[in-house]
Amino acid sequence: MENINVTINKQNYTASEANTILDICQKNNIDIPTLCHHPDLRSEGNCRMCVVEVKGERDLVASCNMKASNGMIIETGSSKVLKSRKATLELLIANHPNDCLTCDRTSGECKLQDLCYQYDVTRSEQILDTLEQPKMMDLSSPSIERDLSKCIVCGKCIRVCRETQDIGVYQYQERGFKTVVSTKGHEPLIDTNCINCGQCVKVCPVGALIEKQEIRKVIDALRDPEVHLVVQTAPAVKHTIGELFGMAPGEDVSGKLNSALKKLGVDKVFSTDLAADVTIMEEGMEFIQRIEGKGKMPMFTSCSPGWIKYVENEFPQFLDNISTCKSPQQMLGALSKSFYAQKNHVDPHKIFNLSIMPCTAKKYEAQRKEMAVNEIRDVDAVLTTRELARLIKLEKIPFKQLRDETYDDFLGEHTGAARIFGTSGGVMEAALRSVAWTLTDGVLEDIDYEKVRGLENVKEADLEIAGMKLKIAVVNGTAAARRLLEKIESGEKEYHFVEVMGCPGGCINGGGAPLQDSMATVKKRMEGIYRMDKNAELRRSHENPLVNQIYETYLGEPGGVKAHKLLHTH
Question: For position 179, what pLDDT does the model report?
């Protein structure tokens, strides 16, 4: 691509001819407001907030859609531009509910509110009387809440659900001023093929889509003297929650997170990472059994509940290919109410297992009827990363200033292999580290499987372990998963082991992660996780002494009868 010269606000800039006006402005820190634009989605120019004035053009143009050309002269803050943006905001806010004080999108998370402050826009009751529509709530989903009265019809949820996830739950309904974004036939979300991934929540600029709120349930448990509350924190949360307190993406804030949870008043702080190590023990043994002819191939990982729901909805013929292992969240829940309860003489019926997850689909997973042992639920409540940050702020805990604290002993120790579960390719790499060691009786010392790392939609690798040639694949997002499953079904592709994460990039980009990010931010989170792994004293799951102790004193052998009852499902 050739370089071009453009003039923006009387300053000269050099750019590529492939750039839009918005690209150039963002690269050079020139503020242009957006509502419908997202760096990882196709631009549609729906909201008209990013309009600019281009010399020679009669009308204002949407900077997100207009490619720059050589010699172009652009004004981003002329009176005509500012007047247009303010008029757009006035129409949006006139048709918006006046409940900012109680809205779950707090200050800084709602782009509409931020822009109204910036452009000095207040509500016009005269317009409000003619335009406001009745509140339309959909609380049917176990993971996502919808409020159509707050929708500004930006179309981001449509694009991410259709383009990134290839599911297509949302669509435009009606026309003109009556246009709304809804499901087909306005069906409740629970009656659609939604997989609860929450990617729509991540891109929504207002409070029209939020995660199902469970903060009140957790507060009630914290205040109940009869409840023994144990909390588990997922690998990805430790590298993302810091962003919500002004810290850098990818920074490992495990110690501060433990400290904040203890200040909230929980009884024990455990790490889901430990259960990730247990998952590798179980899933690794299952994979070895399958390559020996004791199960369908290829074997698919089972850690992502959005992916599981996707297979159930779209490709049920592959259900027998999915590992029978529960996810680390559910394994930790089961262990806390069995191993931990027994060793500490705690009634498992009084244990409230709270998990902190980067994933809205984990709320759905925790409620599944299969996720219980002897009629005792594995997990009682799930807070997303954002919900926990909200709770910490509500309790006025100074997160950034906290001293680091450790996990509680019983279910806290983990390896670097467990931590990389938080990013795409991590489950596969963690499994390969232990499977290769087991199949070669400890001869193969490979630790780093860099072919499965990265943010590409599909990563493939051919490996030779113990004389066996293994074909593996790692898949990001359900759109890429669909294409891969179709190739496997047609015989075009053959694999032995496939990792699938329902969200692009894996858990560090889950539906419960910090809002208003991009794949550039996700990459920084991934780098932080691999830094932690590289510096870890133990980097393979089978080396975790606490995991070995759990098997020796309680579970027996991996894949055994007791392990199957507690840690596997269907």
Answer: 84
In the predicted model, residues of the chain with pLDDT beneath 50 are 125-134
Angle between helices 328-335 and 272-291 (to 10 degrees): 110
pTM given for the model = 0.90
Distance of CA 14 to the CA centre of its chain: 36
Which pLDDT belongs to residue 107?
61
pLDDT of residue 440: 86
Both tokens of 442, joined, read: 């400890």
Q: What CATH fold (topology level) applies to the domain 3-77?
A: Ubiquitin-like (UB roll) (3.10.20)
Taking CA atoms, 559 is separated from 100, 282, 337, 349, 562, in Å, by 51, 6, 19, 26, 8
Tokens of 456: 């590409």
| Residue 95 confidence (pLDDT) | 77
Which segments of the chain belong to CATH 3.40.50.1780? 216-567
pLDDT of residue 450: 87
Q: What is the pLDDT of residue 126?
A: 44
Residues acting as catalytic residues:
283, 286, 303, 323, 362, 365, 370, 507
Q: What is the DSSP string of 314-371?
A: H-GGGGGGB--BPPHHHHHHHHIIIIIHHHHT--GGGEEEEEEES-THHHHHHH-TTS
3-state secondary structure of 160: helix
User: Which residue's structure tokens are 């004293």?
Assistant: 537
- At 439 the pLDDT is 87
Domain covering 216-567: architecture: 3-Layer(aba) Sandwich (3.40)
Q: How many CB atoms lie within 10 A of CB 407?
A: 22
